[in-house]
Amino acid sequence: QMVREGRIPEPDVLFFMTFEEIGILLATRSPAIAAKASRRFRLHPRLNKDKYPYVVLGIPKPIVRELKYCEGETELKGNPMSQGTARGYARVIQDFEEAHLIKKGDILITAATDTGWTPYFPLLAGVVTEIGGPLSHGAVVAREYGLPCIVGVDGATLLLRTGDYVFLDGNSGILRKVVKSEEDDEDEDELRDVLKASPRLQNLQ
Q1: Is 204 left (phi over 0), alpha (psi -120 to 50) or beta?
Q2: What angle, rounded to 10 degrees, do the helices at 19-28 and 31-47 form?
Q3: The pLDDT value given to residue 187
Q4: Which residue from 180, 168, 167, 179 is spatially nearest to 71, judged by alpha carbons?
Q5: What CA–CA distance (Å, rounded) separates 126 from 175?
Q6: Where would a tag sit more exposed on the chain, N or C end, judged by fewer CB atoms within 10 A?
Q7: Which CATH number fits the domain 74-202, given the four candidates 3.10.180.10, 3.50.30.10, 3.40.190.10, 3.90.640.10?
Q8: Active-site residue 44, yes or no?
Q9: Which stretches of the chain are assigned E, i.e. beta strand?
Q10: pLDDT confidence bin for 205, thresholds 50/70/90
Q11: pTM score, whole prediction
Q12: Among residues 36, 51, 104, 137, which one is catalytic?
C-alpha cells in the first residue's frame, strides 16, 4: 500500500527503516526518509558481504578476507548439527531467489536458511550453512528430515561452487570436496531407483 501511495519506491525498502521513521513517513510523506531508506537498501548487498569479529572493542571493522575458489580436493570444518553422511553435488546459493535451482540429491551450501527454504529440504541430501547454531532454522529442519547438517563453515559459499562433488559428514562437521568415483555413480543409480519407486517422492519432481 505504501508503494501504491508513492511513499516508498518498492516494498523491501520498508525493512530498512526504523519504527520511528515509518511513523513519520506515514504522517508526513517525508521524501528525505524515503531517500535515506532507499540508500540503505542499495548499500545492503555490498555491506552484507563483510564479516565482523564476534567480539568488538571500539569501532567495528570488517575482517579482511581474500577467500577464493579452491581448485582440487579441499576440506572445510564446521559444527555438526545433524548426524549422518552424504555425497552429492554442491548447490551453492548466495540468494534465496536462486533456491528454485535446487535439484533432488543436492547438498545445499548457503549463508543461512529461514522458513522460506523449508519446502526445498525434502529435495536435499544435506545442508551446510556458514552461520547458525543448534537452534538455527537449517539445523532444526535438517534434524526433522533426517538430513546431515553442519553449520559455521566460514567462507563455504566462496570456496566451493555449484557442481562440485562433496562429502558431508554430519557426525564430525567435515565438508570435503572430493573426486567422484565409480562407486558414487552406482549409489546415484540406486537413489534414482528408490525415487522412482516412491510415489510420494515422485511428486517432488
Answers
A1: alpha
A2: 140
A3: 64
A4: 179
A5: 11
A6: N
A7: 3.50.30.10
A8: no
A9: 74-77, 79-82, 85-93, 107-110, 126-129, 149-151, 165-169, 174-177
A10: very low
A11: 0.65
A12: 137
Q: Give yes or no for a contact between 93 and 114, defined as CB atoms under 8 angstroms apart.
A: no
Q: Which residues contact 43 (CB under 8 A, 6 or more apart)?
A: none
- Alpha carbon distance 22, 10 (integer Å): 14
Q: Number of H helices and number of E strands within the chain?
A: 6, 8
Looking at residue 9, what is its pLDDT?
Answer: 85
Q: What share of the chain is helix, strand, coil (3-state, %, to 5)?
A: 40, 20, 40
What are the grid coordinates assigned to 103, written together? 535439484
C-alpha cell at 190: 540406486
In tens, the pLDDT along 180-190 reads 766 666 666 66
**Which of the pair, 205 or 98, is modelled with greater confidence?**
98
Residue 150 has pLDDT above 80, yes or no: yes
Among 32-46, 60-74, 175-189, the range with the most confident prediction by mean pLDDT is 32-46
Per-domain residue ranges of the chain = 11-47, 74-202
User: Taking residues 96-112, what's their average pLDDT?
Assistant: 94
Q: Sort strands 165-169 and 85-93 into parallel, antiparallel or unpaired.
A: antiparallel
Per-residue cell: 114: 529461514
